[in-house]
Amino acid sequence: MYKLRELHEPEYTEEDLNFLLASGGICRCFSLAEILLATNNFDEECLIGKGGSAKVYKGVIDDGATTVAIKRLSYISKQAVGSMFRTEIEMLSKFRHSHLVSLVGYCHEWHEMILVFEYISQGTLSDHLHQSFVKGYDTLSWIQRLKICIGAAQGLDYLHTGTSTSQRVIHRDVKSTNILLDGNLEAKIADFGISKIVATNQGCTYVSTAVRGTFGYMDPSYFTTGRLTRKSDVYAFGVVLFEVLSGRRAVNLSRDDEQLGLAGWAQNCIKQGRMNEIIDSNLKMQISKKSLLAFVKIASQCLNAQPSCRPTIAEVVVILEFSLALQGNSDATPIKGAIYTGYSGRCSTAVEVVYGKNHVKPFEINRWRATFSRKVCQILSTSIRSSSG
């Protein structure tokens, strides 16, 4: 039997009421009775995930017509939970993208703060990488992993650059458990509870804020300075890329000091010429050398100690797509392409064409107004030179 925490209605502030009123027209407002019916009174058999701040239940709404994921925030404090609750509603009511999880609605009755999302059937990227046997998932192939990374990167790119002309979003908690996979293994970024919306006209490239995030994925520069930038998400995504390549967790307390943190260990392996040690044993017979080198180079750049030296997420998307195209070509098929560099020394136009079997073009960039960093262009041009016949 479900029991309410209090026997009286909570006292909403005027700010709370204005917020709920404003949100009412954007997404659906569920009653607590509807949520209880959907989850069979929060039955443990419906529980599909949990963390320090929430439990997630699989539920059905609309007389069983729609399956949803119901996130019940833990009552740590009204201020802390309320902030996460508001942020997720604000983010996902404003921003829609095929690689972001969709918000269906919310419930704010008594002291409950509950979010209702589309149901993503195949769990998290972390589940597939680290618990595939337990969860009953097939091991992800290299091509599947590349496509998942590309989708997640496209979702982040939308947050960083495509939400509007006046606002940008920093996720602040990019990690493999916050990348969900649907029935087609398409990536969906989730959990926006600590995200930040940044105005593009604020005059600086960072936000000074309390340090939040997950150990192992957190940007060292952000941790030491409190300055949050989009490049903090890039760093975290770099950790995810090495997690995907290695099959190792971002942090593993059972390993020795050298291998405890994935980011530091992977960087040391690359510096010492031990790159082969990073590759998941399930992938070693699958990855082409060309695809691997492009992938590792961009992942390494994401982990650069200097945020300004990291690529943008848009550049990461380009190289991951290139890595996928390289993987798709047979080693005997030559790769042809060209880089056009502007007078500034930066590439104002980049055109890359990879010819596969029968001259199919699996990858092509023709962005006349695109600007890529010199390091990113070096990855592209080096890959072409080393692969040309």
Based on DSSP secondary structure assignment, what is the total number of beta strands? Answer: 15
From the spread of the alpha carbons, the general shape counts as globular
Strand content: 15-25%
Q: Average pLDDT, to the nearest integer?
A: 81
CATH architecture of the largest domain: Orthogonal Bundle
Question: Strands of the biggest beta sheet: in what spatial order?
Answer: 1-5-6-4-3-2
Terminal CA distance: 71 Å
Extract low-pLDDT stretches.
1-14, 338-370
List the secondary-structure elements in sequence, H or E: HEHEEEHEEHHHEEEEEHEHHHHHEEEH
Q: How would you name the CATH homologous superfamily of the largest domain?
A: Transferase(Phosphotransferase) domain 1
Number of domain modules:
3
Structural class: alpha+beta
Q: So what's the CATH class of the largest domain?
A: Mainly Alpha
Radius of gyration: 22 Å
Helix content: 25-40%
The largest sheet is: 6 strands, mixed
In the CATH scheme, what's the topology name of the largest domain?
A: Transferase(Phosphotransferase), domain 1
If helices are DSSP runs of H or I spanning 4 or more residues, what is the number of helices?
Answer: 13
Layout of strands and helices, then pairs:
Layout: H1 14-24, E1 28-29, H2 32-38, E2 47-50, E3 54-61, E4 66-73, H3 78-94, E5 103-107, E6 114-118, H4 125-130, H5 132-135, H6 142-162, E7 167-170, E8 179-181, E9 187-189, E10 196-199, E11 207-208, H7 220-225, E12 227-228, H8 230-246, H9 257-260, H10 262-271, H11 289-302, H12 313-328, E13 337-340, E14 349-354, E15 363-367, H13 374-387
Parallel strand pairs: 1-5
Antiparallel strand pairs: 2-3, 3-4, 4-6, 5-6, 7-10, 8-9, 11-12, 13-14, 14-15
